[in-house]
């Protein structure tokens, strides 16, 4: 069984970036996805070049920070920032979403790094209005996408793109323990490939004031670098991979 442990929010801030890199160097994280519009993005690209073994994909966003595109009025509030996730689809126009996502992809490639895969902040690519856009980008750039098979329609679309057999998002909030991680590993053993999402980080002002999910990030980092967690994977003969290996 092949397992990807992907750290979301690379690029959010320097503290998040350093946490993800330590989870890769000293723990079980194999992959990360990068927010190209956030203040720590340039730093994240530098770290990615210093650690080429870490798979780095793009974390497309419509709900964090501000857009890169000059004119996407349906995606922003009066302050020019993205709408909150609960308000997004009351305003967002498909043409603006495609323009912004294309701009984010271009910004990633301009770093000189090729993304390993595509996913999205707050899973916006799971939405029926967004998924076709992401699938077009995946086809254009020949990239895998985080598993989005949450409905029959999505399962049909899955035939068009490379992804893992399973995606697990339960390592979060109150469930950030070695014991819970073990339960997650037990649920994926029958699959050929699986991705576990995580959010390891250290804390800085950007995380504490900008993210509603902050203190548990440090707990995630502790679990992901705990020798017991690595041993759980070894006992199950799981192979840690990146999205580069997804066919």
Structural notes for this entry:
With 247 residues, the protein is of the alpha/beta class. It has a single domain (2-245), classed as TIM Barrel (Alpha-Beta Barrel), CATH 3.20.20.370. Helix content is 39%, strand content 13%. It contains ten helices and seven strands. It has helices at residues 14-26, 41-50, 88-91, 94-109, 131-141, 152-157, 178-188, 205-210, 215-224, 227-235; strands at residues 2-10, 31-34, 55-60, 118-120, 166-168, 193-198, 239-240. Strands 1, 2, 3, 4, 5, 6 and 7 form a seven-stranded parallel β-sheet that branches. The longest helix has 16 residues, at 94-109.
Radius of gyration: 17 Å
Structural class: alpha/beta
Largest sheet: 7 strands, parallel
Query: What fraction of the residues are assigned to beta strands by DSSP?
Result: 5-15%
Portion of residues in helices?
Answer: 25-40%
Distance from first to last alpha carbon: 14 Å
Uncertain residue segments: none
Number of helices: 10
Average pLDDT level = 95
The number of E-state strands comes to: 7
Q: CATH superfamily name?
A: Glycoside hydrolase/deacetylase
| Element string (H = helix, E = strand) | EHEHEHHEHHEHEHHHE
CATH topology: TIM Barrel
Protein name: Carbohydrate deacetylase
Cofactor: Mg(2+)
Function: Probably catalyzes the deacetylation of acetylated carbohydrates an important step in the degradation of oligosaccharides.
InterPro entries: COD_ChbG_bac, Glyco_hydro/deAcase_b/a-brl, YdjC-like
